[in-house]
Structure formats: structure tokens, C-alpha cells
Design goal:
- The structure is a single chain.
- This protein has helices at 28-47, 57-76, 85-101, 114-136, 154-165; strands at 13-15, 18-19, 22-23, 26-27.
- By secondary structure, the chain is mainly α.
- The protein has a two-stranded antiparallel ribbon with strand order 1-4.
- Strand 2 (18-19) and strand 3 form a beta hairpin.
- Helix 1 packs across helix 3 (85-101).
């Protein structure tokens, strides 16, 4: 038995697939992400299979999981953030479950790969840009020039504001 300390981070192709010249192979990373999805769905399905007015332990844990995200959104975004609770809930528990599954001996942590975290970050970034443009239109760019800023500071402040936004 050859023990390699970085084996935990090595991506290996399990099922090689190619469609129209595009590699869509199933790797150990994909399998562990599917497993994380399955764990989340099973947990909430079992927790809410027979909902009761006075929740049992599993239902109470699932409700607490939801309330944790809802309260965080309401404290940081306010009531306008309610439409985004499902997205934030899904992202939070997907990342949490992937990381917790990665603690199991012999498992794989999909979020240890920059491709996974980069794709999640890019998706959230694009989502926020779309929402901001829908809400503010071209007025979105006014955020890069703070109100009351002297005109001569604009060439310095706009790049700083753009970098801080990114």
C-alpha cells in the first residue's frame, strides 16, 4: 500500500466521455459533488417527510439550518434579500457538505480544486452583476464615483472602486 499525502487532491477520470469533441468525463470530483448533493437532498427529504407542528430532532435541525441562512441574509441585506435566500442556502450547504465529506478518510474534497471554487465564484459574480443591472440599469456605474467626490480625484478613485468591487 503506497500512501501519498496529496492523493486526497488528485483528480482521476472514472468514466471517460466525449460529446461533439468536448470532454465531459466523470471524475472523482464530480462523483463527490453528486454525493454531496445526494446527502443534502436526503437529509432535507427525511427531515421534512412527515412535518409536524412540534418538530422532532431532525426536522428541528433542518429548520434551524434554513433559519440560520435566512437570518444572516436579513441581517446583512435586509428584507430586499429574501428572494436570494434559496441561492445562498443552496451554495452554503453545498460547500459545507463538500468540505465535511472531504474530512472522511479516503474521500475527495471537490472544493479543494480551483476550478470548482472558481466556477462557483464566477457564477455568483455574474449573478450579482445581472441583478445590479436589472435594479439600477446604467446607474450601477455611479457606485464607482462616490457622491460629493471632487472631479480631480475621479481618475484615482474609479480604479480603486472598481478593484474593490471585483
Amino acid at each position: 500500500m503506497n500512501l501519498e499525502p496529496l492523493q486526497h487532491f488528485h483528480i482521476s477520470i472514472v468514466v471517460p466521455l466525449e460529446v461533439a469533441g468536448i470532454d465531459i468525463s466523470i471524475s472523482n470530483s464530480v462523483i463527490w459533488m453528486w454525493l454531496a448533493d445526494l446527502v443534502i437532498v436526503l437529509f432535507f427529504y427525511i427531515a421534512f417527510r412527515n412535518p409536524q407542528a412540534v418538530p422532532q430532532r431532525l426536522q428541528a435541525a433542518a429548520e434551524l439550518a434554513y433559519l440560520f441562512i435566512r437570518n444572516m441574509v436579513e441581517q446583512n441585506i435586509g428584507p430586499d434579500g429574501r428572494p436570494f435566500i434559496p441561492l445562498l442556502f443552496t451554495l452554503f450547504y453545498f460547500i459545507l457538505t463538500c468540505n465535511l465529506l472531504g474530512l472522511l478518510p479516503g474521500s475527495f474534497t471537490p472544493t479543494s480544486q480551483i476550478v470548482v471554487t472558481g466556477a462557483l465564484a464566477a457564477g455568483v459574480f455574474l449573478f450579482t452583476l445581472i441583478i445590479r443591472f436589472r435594479l439600477y440599469g446604467m446607474g450601477f456605474f455611479r457606485a464607482f464615483a462616490p457622491q460629493g467626490l471632487p472631479t480631480w480625484l475621479l481618475p484615482l478613485m474609479i480604479p480603486i472602486e472598481v478593484l474593490s468591487f471585483l
